[in-house]
Amino acid sequence: MAKQTFLKGTLILIAAGMVTRMLGFVNRVVIARFIGEEGVGLYMMAAPTFFLATTLTQFGLPVAISKLVAEASARGDHQKTKNILVMSLTITGILSLIFTPLFLFFAPIMAETMLTDQRTLYPLLAITPVVPIIAISSVLRGYFQGKQNMNPLAVSQVLEQVVRISLVAVCTTIFLPYGIEYAAAGAMLSSVAGELASLVYLFICFKFKKTMKIRKHFFQSIKNGKETLSQLMSVSLPTTGSRFIGNLSWFFEPIVVAQSLAIAGVATVAATKQYGELTGFAMTLLTLPSFITYSLSTALVPAISEGMEQKKLQVVEYRLEQAMRLCLLSGGISVVILYVFADELMSVMYGSSGAAVFIKVMAPFFLLYYFQGPLQAVLQALNLAGAAMMNSLIGALVKTGLIFVLATRPSLGIMGAALAIVTGMVLVTLLHAATVSKVLPISIKIKEYVLCFAVIFICGFLSSAVKQYVTFGESEAVNVAGWIAISAVFYIILLLVFRLIKKDELRRIPIIGRLIVR
Fold first, then answer.
1. Torsion from C-alpha of 152, 156, 157, 161, nearest 10 degrees
2. Does the pLDDT of residue 234 top 90, yes or no?
3. CB 221 within 8 A of CB 83
């Protein structure tokens, strides 16, 4: 199986992530157009349960498999790789048999008593088939990630979104005559179909690229896999704990927000609409650039695990410095575009600019959010997943507590929830950075970072001027696209002028990289 360099694997995942996020964005826009703000509110209230199901079923195994397979590959131990796959499939299979009926049983209780809106029952029930699908696909994803072959991961991500977006309009249209809650359930079913298509593709890739026979001596491998099980659990348990805390926090978030807004005197329907604007519209835009940091996180775990296994500490430190700089550079242009063009972006995409105020308040803080994923990946690769879990717990408790304190105040309302979300997010990122710095020296080149922030501010000023003085026609969508394109060109030119992108990294950009270097 072809092994890729850290930067090449990251670029492949970034390219796929860009396509995936764009398609995902279209998916959200289609949902918003078909079922409106109230329907989006129902969808987003059920969405945390979708991710909670994903977290419980995966059990942190993709990260654990990636780390252990990378270490086994560095030693050339193929039998160890087989043992890792066998034990992982056994664990996820058992978890599927446990959690699938549990979700079916608790769905009515969650809808009626926790989410305060009985209509969320149907989206919750639509999620259930995803449990066994994700169980198998998580193992295959971890295997390819550990082998540092990112092509199957990239294609499967794009395929998932293509299937999802192809079906979402059909599903919502079919179920909409029966009620808005059925339409939200239809949107969930399209997500399940996307996950299934992704699994089928990953299975085909594994079938043709594997170097061992999984079914041969399967039960013997389980019997002799106590050491492998222990190694998997040492990484997966704290990783699951960290993700479980995040997803549990997100699961309780709509509950706490709904109850807090009720105390503040906001009616149930209005609260659902406001929460839909914050999480379905604003947060979707704000988290859009995180596909870059997710790609870095995915590639970092096996790269750092392999470097630590081979005692190449300088390589590990270089990878960390490289990842941090890429996070800052990619996050900078994202913050500029989101802050300067918030009203126009919301108007073009959702037909309403009501949620733009959330973006303007939260966007500057999200620059730190883009560092969070890679820092957590480094902690997991360094066997510090337990520390990452504690950091996530602290952030979740602070966020949930602040939501209740701030959102219950009539003067703040849903804005209080937005402020609480960014506070918890910034806190977790800072805690991750402090934990990593105790083990690895985080190289912060003051001059480089000062120049990065200078580029961000200059680009923001130029983008504001472009929006004020430049028009491309009568269409607002055309104007927004043109403004963003010009802003991106300004940003790239500034990065090149201040030499914030290195020549070695430029050369690796497909097609145009070597031309730019010359």
1. 160
2. no
3. yes
